[in-house]
Design goal:
Layout (H helix, E strand, L loop, with lengths): L12 E2 L1 E2 L2 E2 L3 E6 L6 E11 L3 E6 L5 H7 E2 L2 E3 L3 E3 L2
């Protein structure tokens, strides 16, 4: 019998996760930049693997995109809900 862990399951789109939801304004923090940089955008979709697809307010510089975006998704721990 083959056992599959939850981590190997593909991410599915969810309506909300940890207070993040579609069409919500966010700010992403690039803590690897010196000094840390902030980038604004809007969540397009939230995923069960604790990531979100984000529409940025402007084109991100290549280095920032490389640090924040993986396969088109941003990890939720890098995002803050915009007030």
């Amino acid at each position: 019998m083959l056992t599959v862990s939850a981590a190997s399951q593909p991410a599915v789109k969810v309506s909300e996760l940890n207070g993040f939801r579609e069409k919500q304004r966010i700010v992403a923090q690039d803590v690897q930049a010196s000094p840390p940089q902030f980038h604004a955008g809007t969540i397009v979709s939230v995923w069960s693997d604790r990531t979100a697809t984000v529409q940025w307010d402007y084109d991100l510089p290549f280095a920032v995109e490389r640090r924040l975006v993986r396969s088109g998704h941003v990890e939720l721990h890098n995002l803050t809900r915009h007030s």
